[in-house]
């Protein structure tokens, strides 16, 4: 024990009192047996504890084994405890070694130098404790550094794991999004293909519909032409049998209308509003053309529809139009088919528009102006061209008045409604009559009151007596047109000028400049008779309208035949010939007419050449011929022969 214990020694001391002794007693290895001495006297003894040593050894071994077995999964706290145990074990070992050294240095018998030995042992123990404390501090610092490093490593590992998991989640999400986008793209592509297929089918259907409509229109025109030719053939046949040309025309027209046609509904081509809007450039005023006052308060636009030049007449929106009445009026217009009538193309009830073929020659009104040669206006027509135009108008009116059960009245014959067909050899000048049935498109209450121009072409006697239109209305208007053709003056002045020339109060050179005197006198007298004025017998009843028209056709045909540069050879071909005298293939007057299997009559050589070239279809209808046998048309041949002789006699009489 130390020097302090030696000084406090007494015989009754049974426990260590010095710090050194107490430290050794508590911290020495339990397996060591320790004797505590003071001044050479034994104070007490601490027996060795084998169980505690063994238990501590087993605990240390188990702890070491546990730490070894779980070193791969140890936590920082466990590792800290391991380091502390190692430090404590080191300190215990140093204390044991120190006690052993004290035990070895202690003399077997107490001597006087025992105090000095205790001081030396104390110094050694102090140094050992200081070294242990230093080692413990170093172990603690090392433990703390390791803890910080391990915490940083654990945090970095945790962050790395979290980043890896986030990356995996992002990759899975990206893969799902890509798969969804791929599915959406595939669905969109499929929809686009289906839409393209649908649009292609719609386009094909539209194209087919347009083709069928054109075919229907062409078929309707062909059928109307066939009916007109058939009626003309019946007309000619009846003329040859009965010798009454006008009654034949009436029967022919009645057959072509099939019991009057009033009860028979004929369909017409119904056009869409978008088609008319595109054809007229959205109904632009720049494409508007003069339609000639037909009384329906409308506008007429020029345009191109399905590759064909057309005139689109639109009823003004402020005029009441009944849909059923409009449709019936269009059907009646469509039933009237004649070479000298403007052809109906179709109608659009939604736009309240009627579409006709466009006649590019302009109206007769534009060609009667004496100053028409100036500026952009067309030049006035020569006298023989005026006769050709008037002849075409007479033919159209004769056809309309021949319908049954009652005649069809145009009701608005005037130069503005007579469209000029330019000189087209060998047929010469002609016209197409427009405005037929236009008044029926609107309600009766919407009909405008007749103006000054209307009254000039209206027959006052018949209009006032019956209050309804009749063929004499058309004949009267035609007479006014003839007088205007001769005199070139307005309607009200033309009749007065013609009367003065016929009575000798004025010369024909003054009244009808540019006309041959004899031709001017004949046409003027014809016009006066159509107007109900008979210079030779004014009190005589007026002739029937049919006879007046027939007379007008004869006078005008003779005038056209006597035109300059017309020779007998040219007259013998096709000039002024009825259309049914012409071969559909050669477009010339036939010499040997033959009836084919399609019912049409052709020049014998032309139809035989057609059949020899390998054709088995009709040149007119393009349908297969039921037979290739030809039948001579004796009635038509006789009529052509008679016409040639009549033309030749007229030519010799004039020259």
From TrEMBL:
It catalyses: S-ubiquitinyl-[E2 ubiquitin-conjugating enzyme]-L-cysteine + [acceptor protein]-L-lysine = [E2 ubiquitin-conjugating enzyme]-L-cysteine + N(6)-ubiquitinyl-[acceptor protein]-L-lysine. PANTHER family: OS02G0152300 PROTEIN (PTHR45647), OS02G0822900 PROTEIN (PTHR45647:SF94). CDD domains: RING-Ubox_WDSUB1-like. Residues 10-20 have a biased composition (Basic residues). InterPro entries: Kinase-like_dom_sf, Prot_kinase_dom, U-box_ubiquitin_ligases, Ubox_domain, Znf_RING/FYVE/PHD. Residues 58-75 have a biased composition (Low complexity). GO terms for biological process: protein ubiquitination. Residues 576-650 form the U-box domain. Its EC number is 2.3.2.27. Residues 1-21, 50-84, 153-177, 245-264 are annotated as: Disordered. Pathway: Protein modification; protein ubiquitination. It comes from the Eukaryota. This is RING-type E3 ubiquitin transferase. Keywords: Transferase, Ubl conjugation pathway. Residues 286-582 form the Protein kinase domain. GO terms for molecular function: ATP binding; protein kinase activity; ubiquitin protein ligase activity.
């Amino acid at each position: 024990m130390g020097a302090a214990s030696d000084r406090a020694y007494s015989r009754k001391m049974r426990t260590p009192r010095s710090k050194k002794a107490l430290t050794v007693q508590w911290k020495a290895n339990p397996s060591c047996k320790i004797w505590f001495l003071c001044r050479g006297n034994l104070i007490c003894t601490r027996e060795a504890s084998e169980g505690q040593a063994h238990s501590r050894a087993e605990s240390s071994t188990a702890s070491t084994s546990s730490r070894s077995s779980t070193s791969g999964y140890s936590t920082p706290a466990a590792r800290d405890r391991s380091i502390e145990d190692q430090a404590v074990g080191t300190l215990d070992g140093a204390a044991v070694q120190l006690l052993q050294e004290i035990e070895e240095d202690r003399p077997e018998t107490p001597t006087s130098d025992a105090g000095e030995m205790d001081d030396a042992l104390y110094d050694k123990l102090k140094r050992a404790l200081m070294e242990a404390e230093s080692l413990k501090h170093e172990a603690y610092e090392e433990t703390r550094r390791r803890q910080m490093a391990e915490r940083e490593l654990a945090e970095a590992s945790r962050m790395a794991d979290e980043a890896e998991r986030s990356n995996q989640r992002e990759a899975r999400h990206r893969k799902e999004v890509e798969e969804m986008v791929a599915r959406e793209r595939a669905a969109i592509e499929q929809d686009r293909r289906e839409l393209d297929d649908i649009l292609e089918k719609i386009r094909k259907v539209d194209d087919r519909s347009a083709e069928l409509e054109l075919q229907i229109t062409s078929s309707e025109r062909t059928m109307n032409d066939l009916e007109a030719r058939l009626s003309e053939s019946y007309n000619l046949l009846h003329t040859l049998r009965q010798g009454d040309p006008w009654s034949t025309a009436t029967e022919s027209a009645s057959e072509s209308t099939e019991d009057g046609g009033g009860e028979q509904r004929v369909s017409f081509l119904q056009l869409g509003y978008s088609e008319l809007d595109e054809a007229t450039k959205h109904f632009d005023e720049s494409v508007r053309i003069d339609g000639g006052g037909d009384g329906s308060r409308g506008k007429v636009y020029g345009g191109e529809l399905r590759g064909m030049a057309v005139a689109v007449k639109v009823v003004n929106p402020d005029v009441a139009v009944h849909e059923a009445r409009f449709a019936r009026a269009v059907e009646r217009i469509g039933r009237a088919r004649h070479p000298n009538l403007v052809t109906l193309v179709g109608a659009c009830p939604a736009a309240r528009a009627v579409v006709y073929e466009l006649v590019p020659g302009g109206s007769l009104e534009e060609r009667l102006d004496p100053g028409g040669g100036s500026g952009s206006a067309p030049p006035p027509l020569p006298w023989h061209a005026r006769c050709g135009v008037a002849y075409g108008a007479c033919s159209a009116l004769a056809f309309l008045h021949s319908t049954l059960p009652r005649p069809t009245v145009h009701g608005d014959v005037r130069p503005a409604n007579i469209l000029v067909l330019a000189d087209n050899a060998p047929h010469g000048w002609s016209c197409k009559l427009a405005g037929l049935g236009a008044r029926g498109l609107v309600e009766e209450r919407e009909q405008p009151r007749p103006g000054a121009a209307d009254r000039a072409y209206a027959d006052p006697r018949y209009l006032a007596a019956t209050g309804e239109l009749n063929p004499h209305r058309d004949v009267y208007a035609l007479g006014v047109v003839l007088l205007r053709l001769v005199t070139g003056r307005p309607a009200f002045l033309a009749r007065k000028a013609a009367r003065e020339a016929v009575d000798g109060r004025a010369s024909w050179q003054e009244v009808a400049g540019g006309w041959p005197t004899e031709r001017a006198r004949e046409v003027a007298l014809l016009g006066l008779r159509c107007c109900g004025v008979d210079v030779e017998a004014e009190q005589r009843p007026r002739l029937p309208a049919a006879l007046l028209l027939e007379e007008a056709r004869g006078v005008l045909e003779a005038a056209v035949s006597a035109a300059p540069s017309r020779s007998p050879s040219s007259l013998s071909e096709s000039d002024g010939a009825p259309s049914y005298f012409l071969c559909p293939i050669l477009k010339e007057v036939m010499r040997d007419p033959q009836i084919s299997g399609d019912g049409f009559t052709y020049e014998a050589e032309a139809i035989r050449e057609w059949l020899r070239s390998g054709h088995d279809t009709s040149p007119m209808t393009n349908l297969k011929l039921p037979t290739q046998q030809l039948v001579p048309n004796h009635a038509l041949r006789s009529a052509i022969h008679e016409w040639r002789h009549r033309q030749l006699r007229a030519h010799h009489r004039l020259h």
